[in-house]
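INFO  loader      accepted 1 record
INFO  loader      residues=297
INFO  predictor   begin
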Amino acid sequence: MAYGAPGLHPRRPGPRRGRPLSLSLQAERAILALALAWPTWGPARLAVQLARPEHGGWRVAPATIYRLLRRMGLSTRFQRLAVLEAHSAQAAGLLTERTRRRLAAARRRRGPHVAAQHPGDLVCLDTFYIGKLKGVGKVWQYTACDAACSYAIAQVTTEFSANAAAQFLRTRVWPAYQAAGWPLRRVLTDQGSEYRGAFDQACQQFHIKHTRTRPRHAWTNGFAERLQGTILTELWRVEFRRRFFTNVAQLQVALDRYLGFYNHQRPHLGYRTQGRRPAEIFWTSSWAEHHEHVRPA
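INFO  predictor   done
INFO  writer      dumping tokens
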């Protein structure tokens, strides 16, 4: 043998080169900027948003984004929120840890499929207690989510009553469906006291069928519950770490700004929208023209 006895031993492999860099410095900066602007988003949603032209049109795989965030110590949403808190004077959360766990458990439950083919067939309403804010008092959020297209409507108020819920239906929900040309046929709520009395009268006024969930079956109203969890995660937990609110009007401005983003720009990955944004479905008049919807008198 040419190499003798040592040639019988397996050859020890030498060191291999590491993974080549797959991201440019500009792409990394764009990813980090978007991840800190929306600290509660995951890699999949960040990848969809980065591909949009206004964010540079970067085509980056979610796994690549995750590796970058992990390398920078920002792999979890709580790490990204901690960075935001470090640069803000306000670091007050909205909910206690016990309530956060309860909401997370409710979102994990899977409810029955709700059949709603067109906007207005079923609108899910729910009330969310934001908290007691210094200088403002107790604040609630009334939320409506269309089961067919995920279109969101919400209002912040300091009043928790059936009159406030009825006013939300009259001044925000009903006018939006009238402007879009969709008839509002049915609403779904829980057994809360704010959805009785004056709220039932408002439903009768507009000829809307009012359906309630069964007691202790909050997941039946999962569309509204999920929407409120998204608003809490992407808006309030971020905004309350950025600024200090002194009145309800400021809260409503922040909420309206986020709803505009949610309905018109935010990427949606659900089976109902099939990649489209809620406003693309809700404000498409051709759908209403091709379906013989009759508005209630």
